[in-house]
């Protein structure tokens, strides 16, 4: 065994872990500014709910979708319910569970802050990344997520958000993204 190499690997892993925690905290704090009146965690929770089949929006399924604990999601759900962004109803499948539904106000709020989050925030935080770098980062994060054998059930497919944007609004948003990302504001 090469002890120097193993020591270096251990040191590097600790640095990567520390950096991931710092980056996560920084992204969350910065994301909060873009997603107002929601926090970035509330925004992601609403998205997770919309990515689940309506009869499977239990706290545990939302937690699994986000890679979070049940307790953490329960706190977020309570906060969102107090703001009338969601409603909580008994599950028809399991009387011990509840299903969470996004209200009309919740959908309107998601839509209103969606451009800021999906266009401005993404353009600002990833402006210095090339396509290949983003693809590599995505692969590495997916690999890291699976360290315990669990698969990432991401938010990239099957969303149940009604598209209320016209083709022109979408084109304008993509142009805004491109201009912002390429630093031509």
Describe this structure in words.
This protein is mainly α and 185 residues long. It has a single domain, classed as Arc Repressor Mutant, subunit A (Orthogonal Bundle), CATH 1.10.10.10. It has seven helices and two strands. The chain has helices at residues 3-34, 40-50, 59-66, 70-82, 104-125, 131-145, 167-181; strands at 86-90, 98-102. A two-stranded antiparallel sheet has the order 1-2. Helix 3 (59-66) packs across helix 4 and helix 5 packs parallel to helix 7. The longest helix has 32 residues, at 3-34. It is globular, with a radius of gyration of 19 Å. It starts with a helix and ends with a helix. The mean pLDDT is 90. One of its GO terms (molecular function) is DNA-binding transcription factor activity. Pfam families: MarR_2.
What keywords describe this structure?
DNA-binding transcription factor activity, DNA-binding, two-stranded antiparallel ribbon, mainly alpha, Transcriptional regulator, Arc Repressor Mutant, subunit A, WH-like_DNA-bd_sf, 185 residues, 7 helices, MarR/SlyA-like, 2 strands
Helix- and strand-based class?
A: mainly alpha
Strand order of the largest sheet: 1-2
Q: Can you tell me the CATH superfamily? A: Winged helix-like DNA-binding domain superfamily/Winged helix DNA-binding domain
Number of domains: 1
Q: Please tell me how large the radius of gyration is.
A: 19 Å
By CATH, the architecture is named Orthogonal Bundle
Q: Provide mean pLDDT, rounded.
A: 90
* Number of helical stretches of at least 4 residues: 7
Describe the main β-sheet briefly. 2 strands, antiparallel
Beta-strand content estimate: 5-15%
Runs in which pLDDT lies below 50 for 5 or more consecutive residues are: none
In percent, how helical is the residue content? 55-70%
Q: Look at the structure and give the CATH class.
A: Mainly Alpha
CATH topology: Arc Repressor Mutant, subunit A
